[in-house]
Amino acid sequence: METASRILSSPVLNHAILFVNKTDGGFQTVYSAFQAAAASYREKVVFVMVDVDEPRNGRMLEYFRVRESEAPMVRLVNLTSHVTYHLPSDTLDTPTITAFCQSYLDGTAQPKMQSETIPADWDQKPVKQLVGENLERLAFNPDKTAFIMFYLPYSEESRSLFPLWEELAQHFLDREEVVIARIDASANDFNLSMRERYPALRLFPALHAERVVAYSGQRNLKDLVQFLEKEMERAKRDRAQEEEDRRKYIENQKAIEAKEAKEAKETKQEL
């Protein structure tokens, strides 16, 4: 069992987190069940207890979007993908927690996808404000090149990048095919792997294929613009190949259908 202060220091990336109020009457029963489940997953899953009544754990509650009133609850998260899984049960006994952890390791658990409400004016400013609900629809639009900042609102490093992102949006303001956007990574879930610290920058080229390009260069306007223009040229070439492959596929399907129709007709005439 680990405490919240050591959650990021373990080499094990899978974390089972018990959010619980230590002052509740049922605390010891739930905590004992959680401890017992932990014994089965040494070196596979780190079990962490977070006291929701402890003010110093406020950031943990904010990051996982947990309200004190929801405790006790168990969440599983991988520190590489940041995808969260929620134990779908009000019964927090050892068999239930163990089965949940096993389903996660087996890959059968379903992620808990959360999203803020789409703001009415999300697309009215140069920098578009995305949420989980519309992220993929915009990011993987085959007719748009989307450059998106994934940020944490309470991170000084994230906030310091906002002015530069506004500059970038202004630079491409007349390019309708380019979208500069940002999304609060602490309030919205997404199926993308983030291996670096936030803010993380990802480019989604205008392709039918779902390509994601991580930006790791210098964070200044010149380098960002050069990166975006280079990736757009690359995507333009790949898009032409996509269109050619699609054309050949359609022609091939038409030929197959024509052949099948002819064979069906000949068979009917023979009968």
Summarize this structure briefly.
The protein has 6 helices and 10 strands; from the N terminus they run E-E-H-E-H-E-E-H-E-H-E-H-E-E-E-H. By secondary structure, the chain is an alpha/beta fold. It has 2 domains: 2-106, Glutaredoxin, CATH 3.40.30; 115-271, Glutaredoxin.
Please, could you describe this protein's structure?
- It is flat and about 80 Å long.
- It is built from six helices and ten strands.
- Strand 2, helix 1 and strand 3 form a beta-alpha-beta unit.
- It is 39% helix and 18% strand.
- It is an alpha/beta fold and 271 residues long.
- 23% of the residues are buried.
- It has two domains: 105 residues, 3-Layer(aba) Sandwich (Glutaredoxin), CATH 3.40.30; 157 residues, Glutaredoxin (3-Layer(aba) Sandwich), CATH 3.40.30.
- The strands form two sheets. A five-stranded mixed sheet has the order 1-3-2-4-5, with helices on one face.
- The chain starts with a strand and ends with a helix.
- The model has no long low-confidence stretch (mean pLDDT 86).
pLDDT averaged residue by residue? 86
The count of β-strands is 10
What is the name of the CATH class of the largest domain? Alpha Beta
Quickly give the structural class. Answer: alpha/beta
Which parts are unreliable, with pLDDT below 50 for 5 consecutive residues or more? none
The CATH topology of the largest domain turns out to be Glutaredoxin
Q: Return the domain count.
A: 2
| Second-tier CATH architecture of the largest domain | 3-Layer(aba) Sandwich
| Terminal-residue CA separation | 76 Å
General shape:
flat
Q: What is the share of helical residues?
A: 25-40%
State Rg.
25 Å
Range of strand content: 15-25%
CATH homologous superfamily caption of the largest domain: Glutaredoxin
Question: What is the makeup of the main sheet?
Answer: 5 strands, mixed
Give the spatial strand order of the biggest sheet.
1-3-2-4-5
Write the element-wise H/E pattern from the N-terminal end onward: EEHEHEEHEHEHEEEH
How many helices?
6
